[in-house]
Amino acid sequence: MAGRDSGDFDAFYIATVRRVVLYLYAACGDRAEAQDLAQEAFARAWQHWPRVAGYDDPEAWVRTVAWRLMANRWRGLRRRVTALARLGPRSEATAGPSPDRVAIVDALQRLPQAQRQVVALHYLLDMPVNDISAATGVPAGTVKVQLSRARTTLAGLLGDNDQEITDATSSR
């Protein structure tokens, strides 16, 4: 196809796919879902590569598309998680994620969506507050507040007072 340089796209994909999947995994808590969302976002980037390649930060475009795809799938994901919870623990003899990873993913899922997004961008992708502000369209001060609130919430969720948190969240 004219106007597409597959070598440039391939290099872009190889350089960014891991970061995008990591970001989405932190946001949605499901690695397979994160991989699917990233695949769809990169497919859309390929479809529009001549335009996307000209952006200052094509990876930000892919992350934004993936975030929107995730938001559109959120209801379906909630139904899926509920169904999987009803099935109970897996009977397969495969090694699961470590308890720390489970705790972190669970804690991230308890954060409001906007806080999850800024935490993923800041801590997993090492983006400064001003870059997060530009990428999300949220004022830098709001990003700082979201990060602060998220850290406070995560500290409580990941601290030694797990029973108090369970009691508090179940009474909501």
Short summary:
By secondary structure, the protein is mainly α. Helices cover 78% and strands 0% of the residues.
What this model shows, in words?
Mean pLDDT is 83; it is low at 162-172. Helix 7 (129-136) crosses helix 8 (140-158). The longest helix is centred in the middle third of the chain and has 30 residues, at 58-87. It contains nine helices and no strands. 78% of the residues lie in helices and 0% in strands. The chain has 172 residues and is an all-alpha fold. It is globular.
Features:
172 residues; disordered C terminus; Arc Repressor Mutant, subunit A; 78% helix; mainly alpha; 2 domains; single chain
Fraction of residues in helix? over 70%
Structurally, the number of domains stands at 2
C-alpha termini separation: 55 Å
Mean pLDDT: 83
Our Rg estimate from Cα atoms comes to 18 Å
Number of strands: 0
Shape: globular
Low-confidence parts, pLDDT < 50 over ≥5 residues? 162-172
Give the topology, please.
Elements: H1 6-28, H2 31-47, H3 49-52, H4 58-87, H5 99-110, H6 113-124, H7 129-136, H8 140-158, H9 162-170
Helix pairs in contact: 1-2, 1-4, 1-6, 2-4, 5-8, 6-8, 7-8
